Amino acid sequence: MKENLMHQRLQPEGIFEPVTGLYSQVVAVADGPRFEIAGTLPYHPDGGLDDDLALQAQVMMDNLGKSLDGAGLLRSDVVRIRVFTTRMDAFLRDAMETVFGWFGDERPTSTLVEVNRLANPHIQLEIDAEAVKANRGGDR
Question: What is the full DSSP assignment across the chain?
Fold first, then answer.
């Protein structure tokens, strides 16, 4: 059996994509340690919080990046995300590209859900993630 070094992202034929190119429908996960990244919020390091949804999205993704870095993970190691927002229309207009574009061509599977409220009523979005550190050839 050939060792799978990286995750394989698939877009099966015959499945409608409501928004083309934002996510992968299926990710075949490579062997490696699995990481669950808790709900990541758009707080600045000093605890500050922007009012603007687009700014919250950028800070949230920066914070996700810090979590990945801290675990020695790359964006391409993320195999699943769940995004929660209290303002779906505004998210689709102002933050969707920031969140989904952050992954480049290595898009994880994803779920996007509108909720009534998050833990802090001023927070407009939250993301959690699952990552598997793929074997990159020389690292184990």
Answer: -----S-EEE--TT---SSTTSS-SEEEPPSS-EEEEEEE--B-TTS-B-SSHHHHHHHHHHHHHHHHHHTT--GGGEEEEEEEES-HHHHHHHTHHHHHHTTTTSPPEEEEEE-S--SSTT--EEEEEEEE----SS--
Within 10 angstroms of residue 62's Cβ, the number of other Cβ atoms is 14
Backbone angles phi, psi at 99, to 5 degrees: -75, -55
DSSP 66: H
Tokens of 94: 């102002």
Whether the CB-CB separation of 85 and 54 falls below 8 Å is answered with no
Query: What pLDDT digit, counting tens, does each position of 49-107 carry?
Result: 999 999 999 999 999 999 988 888 899 999 999 999 999 999 999 999 999 999 998 88
